[in-house]
């Protein structure tokens, strides 16, 4: 019984020490002035054409699935993001192409979000007319003008543009050429091959992503992810071309790179890691067309002599639009004058496609390279995020245990003294 009291007192003292150690840095961080960030802007562009009546998403209509997804998305928009909603094909039900191709409307203006107003506006939508994707993209780009924050457009449609000769892919290229760093992500609801190709082209032109959607929850999750991505700093990927071997691979610096990789092949890149630096790399391969289930992505680092240093491989089952792998390699400090180490990065994939699917061009690859200061000594490795402060945590915990033991012995002495009286 006495031992239990001593143990409880010691644990309480140790817990207090841990909490104290965790709270002090947090308070210090809270006292630092926050730097105001530019306001991100996002516009959701929703297809409300007649084909959205089709009931093939979890037994519901495409329009119903989109509305439910929007309700969930609007509840999760991060604070400080200006959001707007534009429709296409929501108002004109007639046969006149010229009129139908002007049918795009700003349903909710880009700005601070009033969730109730936005949800009410979306609830009134009824599948109606044409699919003027090109005109809607142009208008949406104008909606997002101004400010220095990130700009992101998310296009959700179930079909191709019906307003040729204005090609939506050419519109996206024109938007990218303006230099306003507007990214267009596209989502295809139960898309056919033509729709998939058009939406992939739109996304690719602006550095965005394309996703095929067959379930409501998948739509909700993806749109949430894209809206949250708007809060990240603007980074423009650099196009590169990997090589079949390390010997003639391009030498990459810190940054984000894009490439194309044919099915079931590998590409090589090189990175120079200075003593004391840590290489952090990740690679994503996207299935921008129909592929067979069960595939994977490999990312590994090897020396120029072929010795493997580190590797990661991730598998997919056909339920995602991209598979990613990531590695970390710290190069220890050495004497001054030690040269940098060239690390060869291999990005491979095991994708395959049905016979009817074109394999050219290759699959989109995004490669992220980061070089950070590595740990000086093994003891500098972060311990639950404390870095070198781990020893302070240990000292405080030990102090708490000792204090608990002393308190327990005093309590025991007082108890025994009281009994002798």
UniProtKB/TrEMBL annotation:
List, for all copies, the residue spans of the domain called VWFA. Answer: 41-226
What span is annotated as the signal peptide, if there is one?
A: 1-30
Q: Which PROSITE patterns does this UniProt record tie to the protein?
A: PROKAR_LIPOPROTEIN, VWFA
This chain belongs to which protein, by name?
VWA domain-containing protein
Database matches in Pfam families: VWA_2
Supply the alphabetized keyword list: Membrane, Signal, Transmembrane, Transmembrane helix
Any transmembrane segments, and where?
Answer: 389-411
Q: Which InterPro entries match?
A: CLCR, VWF_A, vWFA_dom_sf
- The answer to whether keyword Cell wall biogenesis/degradation applies is no
